[in-house]
C-alpha cells in the first residue's frame, strides 16, 4: 500500500493523474464506425480529433500533438492499441489488435487507457465485430 500522505504523483490512486485537474463529461456510449473514427483524424477544418483505445473513443481535439503536424498524429482517427502497447509509432503497429501481446505490453496499454481516461472525454465505442473489446 502506498502512503496516502505521500506527495508522489505515482501513489496508487493518483497514478497518471493530470497536473491540473480536468473536468470531464459523462462518458458517451455512441456507436462509432471505423470510417467515422478515420474522418476525425485532426486534418479537417473543424479540428475534431479522436483516438480509440481498446474500442473506446477519446476526443483528443484539445491536444495539438495529435493534429496533422503533431508528434502523435499517427494515432489520430484510429484505434492504435497495439502501437500504444508496444511503444511504437510505426503506422503498421498502430492497429486495434492487441490480445495476442505479452502481458507486459497489455499492462502498458491499460496504463495508456488510464492516462487517456483522466484527460479526454469519451465520445463513444467503436462499433465493429472485428475490434476486440475490453
Ligand atoms: C524519443 C522518444 C519520446 C519522447 C522524448 C517522448 C516525449 C513525450 C512527452 C514530453 C510527452 C508529454 C508528457 C506529458 O504530457 O506529461 C509525451 C506524451 C506521450 N507520448 Fe511520448 N515520447 C517519446 C516516445 C513515444 C513513443 C514511442 C510513443 C508510443 C506509444 C509515445 C506516446 C506518447 C503518448 C500517447 C503521449 C500522451 C500525449 C497526450 O498527452 O495525450 N511517445 N511524450
UniProtKB/TrEMBL annotation:
GO CC term, one of those recorded: endoplasmic reticulum
Family, similarity comment: Belongs to the cytochrome b5 family. MAPR subfamily.
Organism from which the protein derives: Cladophialophora chaetospira
Ranges of residues in domain Cytochrome b5 heme-binding: 32-127
Chain spans, region Disordered: 1-25
A Gene Ontology molecular function term of the record: heme binding
Protein's name according to its UniProt entry: Cytochrome b5 heme-binding domain-containing protein
Superkingdom, taxonomy of origin: Eukaryota
Amino acid at each position: 500500500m502506498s502512503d496516502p500522505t505521500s506527495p508522489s504523483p505515482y501513489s496508487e490512486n493518483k497514478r497518471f493523474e493530470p497536473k491540473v485537474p480536468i473536468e470531464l463529461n459523462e462518458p458517451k456510449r455512441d456507436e462509432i464506425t471505423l470510417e467515422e473514427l478515420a474522418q476525425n483524424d485532426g486534418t479537417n477544418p473543424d479540428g475534431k480529433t479522436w483516438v480509440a483505445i481498446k474500442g473506446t473513443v477519446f476526443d483528443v481535439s484539445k491536444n495539438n500533438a495529435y493534429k496533422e503536424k503533431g508528434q502523435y498524429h499517427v494515432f489520430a482517427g484510429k484505434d492504435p492499441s497495439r502501437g500504444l502497447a508496444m511503444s511504437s509509432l510505426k503506422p503498421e503497429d498502430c492497429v486495434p489488435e492487441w490480445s495476442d501481446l505479452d502481458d507486459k505490453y497489455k499492462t502498458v496499454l491499460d496504463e495508456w487507457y488510464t492516462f487517456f481516461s483522466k484527460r479526454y472525454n469519451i465520445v463513444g465505442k467503436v462499433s465493429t465485430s472485428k475490434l476486440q473489446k475490453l
